[in-house]
């Protein structure tokens, strides 16, 4: 089956989730459980969409030294492996989960080096996927050392010129140039969006105003996640606040990526803004209930969606 959705993962990661009850800094800690997953934002978004039956592909960069875990994951998940291999090892992100103290500590290692040749290879791969019927591309995650801040902007313009819709989930230096390409969906969190705009977003009104600023600049839909407070979605003149129910959080790995996948999934169904918010929030909640970047059964996502409270904003 030809992929209709592709993600671009330029800085993929091996996610190592380590469970350590009562984790203590500057002390010997005993590990209760370890889980290792192929991850990174683009990989996670494609995996979540494949879970819902979408034909997906992942383009991007992987280090040759440790790509086997990704190749195995793509085969098992039914995802088209369209990644360019480059020298070095894909980075490892370690997440130390303390279920007793309800704390999570992140340790992110450096990844591959890349340059114009690697980006050109990814661009060529994307062009090939577009020529065979791609409808959406997700540009997700950080950039590896050596790539310019305009890398996602260039890929977004390429996709839009070919009639392919673009979802963007990045932060820091790549965010501004990519926003100028007017993607169809953008999903920053409140801290990331505040850093881009140069102001703190401390209230719901602050977040809504900031999201409207991006829509006014040409972005199709803005979804700003706010942790346990939910998310604000703005499209055109519409705005809604999605408030999630309380759940037991097993791990935060992939929760934001699940929301991106939910937004793309909902967009393919042509849903209105309120239903998009409901489904995207349910995807995120589903990921929060799992260890590592994965979703529960679709029936569980449907049940979570019914418990999401949607409020229209003026």
UniProtKB/TrEMBL annotation:
Catalysed reaction equations from the record: beta-D-fructose 1-phosphate + ATP = beta-D-fructose 1,6-bisphosphate + ADP + H(+)
GO terms, biological process: carbohydrate catabolic process; small molecule metabolic process
InterPro entries: 1-PFruKinase, Carboh/pur_kinase_PfkB_CS, PfkB_dom, Ribokinase-like, Tagatose/fructose_Pkinase
Keyword list, A-Z: ATP-binding, Kinase, Nucleotide-binding, Transferase
Region forming the signal peptide: none
Domain of life (superkingdom): Bacteria
Coiled coil (UniProt feature): none
Location of the Carbohydrate kinase PfkB domain: 14-293
One annotated GO molecular function: ATP binding
Record-linked Pfam families: PfkB
NCBIfam families in UniProt: 1-PFK, pfkB
UniProt family annotation: Belongs to the carbohydrate kinase PfkB family.
Protein name, per record: Phosphofructokinase
């Amino acid at each position: 089956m030809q992929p209709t959705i592709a993600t671009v993962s330029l800085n993929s990661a091996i996610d190592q989730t380590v469970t350590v009850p009562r984790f203590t800094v500057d002390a010997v800690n005993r590990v209760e459980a370890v889980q290792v997953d192929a991850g990174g934002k683009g990989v996670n978004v494609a995996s979540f969409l494949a879970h819902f039956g979408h034909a997906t592909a992942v383009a991007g960069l992987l280090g040759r030294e440790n790509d086997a875990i990704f190749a195995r994951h793509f085969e098992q998940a039914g995802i088209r492996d369209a990644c360019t291999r480059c020298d070095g090892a894909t980075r490892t992100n370690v997440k130390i989960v303390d279920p007793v103290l309800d704390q999570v500590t992140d340790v992110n290692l450096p990844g591959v080096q890349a340059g114009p040749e690697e980006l050109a290879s990814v661009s060529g791969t994307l062009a090939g996927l577009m020529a065979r019927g791609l409808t959406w591309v997700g540009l997700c995650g950080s950039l590896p050392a050596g790539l310019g801040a305009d890398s996602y902007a260039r890929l977004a313009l390429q996709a839009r010129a070919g009639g392919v819709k673009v979802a963007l989930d990045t932060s820091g230096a790549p965010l501004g140039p990519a926003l100028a390409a007017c993607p169809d969906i953008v999903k920053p969190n409140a801290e990331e969006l505040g850093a881009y705009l140069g102001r703190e977003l401390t209230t719901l009104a602050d977040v809504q105003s900031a999201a409207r600023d991006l829509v006014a600049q040409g972005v199709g839909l803005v979804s700003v996640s706010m942790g346990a407070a939910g998310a604000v979605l703005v499209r055109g003149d519409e705005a809604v606040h999605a408030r999630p129910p309380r759940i037991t959080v097993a791990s935060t790995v992939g929760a934001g990526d699940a929301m991106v996948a939910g937004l793309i999934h909902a967009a393919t169904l042509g849903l209105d803004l309120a239903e998009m918010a409901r489904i995207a929030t349910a995807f995120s909640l589903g990921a929060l209930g799992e260890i590592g970047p994965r979703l529960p059964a679709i029936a569980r996502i449907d049940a979570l969606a019914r418990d999401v409270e949607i409020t229209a904003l003026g």
